[in-house]
Specification:
Distance between the termini: 35 Å
Mean pLDDT: 89
Largest sheet: 5 strands, parallel
Number of helices: 12
Strand content: 15-25%
CATH class of the largest domain: Alpha Beta
Number of domains: 2
Radius of gyration: 23 Å
Helix content: 25-40%
CATH architecture of the largest domain: 3-Layer(aba) Sandwich
Shape: globular
Low-confidence stretches: 14-25
Length: 344
């Protein structure tokens, strides 16, 4: 028996036993979603709980806005689409209000002391220190503080996104800003910047990301508050996504977290929310085919396993979409029976 056949057989067995049964997830009651927090841009966030304590409240006890030296910086880890970035914004907004600050307007958007830095393989030590910006139409440029330095000066929260794909040379260059010194030397100007009250840091990353590396060893102790972020499925119900779709996705994700099936990836909040939205815009058949093509492309590119794509298709079965499947004899490009969105 091939590995994919064995995986499918195991998933079928789990479904038979009820582990993927959408009726067996009573814990997804709507009240489990948590208290809704509306961000200044109008987006609504439902912060999940950790052992009964709302995440933003827990973060408020770990991050000391009065004295950054007393803070224990955060690591938010989890698959893409679980809402790590939105939760970081929620934490920053809560801290901003607790400091008695009002929402400002910066570059035409609401601002509440939150800076998101998207790191990558090309990031280096200068990423955290300086930026060059054009001066009018003269063709000249000037040196300005990076977003990170601005946050240190003004006491803002910084989220370093996908930090595990950045090179160590970049990350290690800010060690002084994340330990007891809380300072950063700017070689271009000869200045040493010390973090102002309110400055705090959070890392957000997918520890299973293809091509990622480990964090520098010293960073694990400098970011000791590690929180594993799962999709807030009850919140997705509150946002109007149907139970018949949400509960099989939540059940499959529970199998991933348990680690029993070897699943590293399963569809998360963002994928399920997008599928529901696509159904409302283009109908079930087209939406599911778009979803199947997305799974196919990820599997072909090695970003997910074939068994994970198959498990996602089993989830569609349980969500009531099995009637959309096509037989192999029809020669329609498909993924485990679900037609893909392929042009003719």
């Amino acid at each position: 028996m091939s590995a994919i056949s064995a995986a499918l057989a195991q998933i079928d067995e789990l479904a038979t036993e009820g582990d993927l049964n959408p009726q067996g997830l009573d814990e997804l009651a709507l009240e489990a979603a948590g208290e809704a927090i509306e961000l200044p841009d109008g987006r609504v966030v439902y912060p999940p709980s950790v052992h009964g304590e709302p995440l933003h409240e827990l973060a408020g006890r770990l991050l000391d806005t009065g004295d950054p030296q007393n803070s224990r910086f955060l690591r938010l880890i989890g698959p893409p689409g679980t809402g790590k970035s939105m939760l970081a914004r929620c934490i920053a907004y809560t801290l901003w209000l607790r400091r008695g600050r009002t929402v400002e307007t910066r570059f035409g958007a609401p601002f509440y002391g939150f800076v998101e830095m998207q790191l990558g393989p090309s990031s280096d030590e200068w990423t955290f220190r300086h930026e060059f910006v054009p001066v009018g139409e003269s063709g000249h440029v000037k040196l300005v503080d990076s977003a990170f330095v601005q946050a240190m000066r003004n006491g803002w929260m910084v989220m370093l996104d996908e930090v595990n794909i950045a090179r160590d040379v970049a990350l290690l260059s800010i060690n002084g800003a994340i330990d007891g010194r809380l300072s950063l030397y700017l070689p271009a100007t000869g200045e040493t910047v010390t973090a102002a009250p309110g400055f705090c840091l959070a890392l957000a990353y997918n520890n299973g990301l293809v091509g990622a590396t480990d964090l520098p060893e010293a960073w694990y102790s400098r970011f000791p508050a590690t929180i594993e972020i799962r999709s807030n499925w009850a919140a997705l119900l509150r946002l109007g996504c149907p139970e018949l779709l949400v509960k099989p996705a939540a059940a499959l994700d529970t199998r991933r977290v348990s680690g029993d099936d070897g699943l590293v990836w399963t569809p998360q909040f963002r994928e399920i929310e997008s599928l529901h939205y696509l159904v409302s815009r283009v109908g079930e058949r087209m939406a599911v085919s778009l979803f199947a093509s997305d799974l196919h492309e990820r599997a072909q590119g090695g970003r997910i396993q074939d068994a994970e794509a198959a498990a996602a298709c089993r989830m569609l079965d349980l969500a009531g979409y099995a009637h959309l499947k096509v037989s192999a004899t029809r020669r329609i490009p498909s993924l485990h029976g679900y037609p893909r969105a392929v042009t003719s």
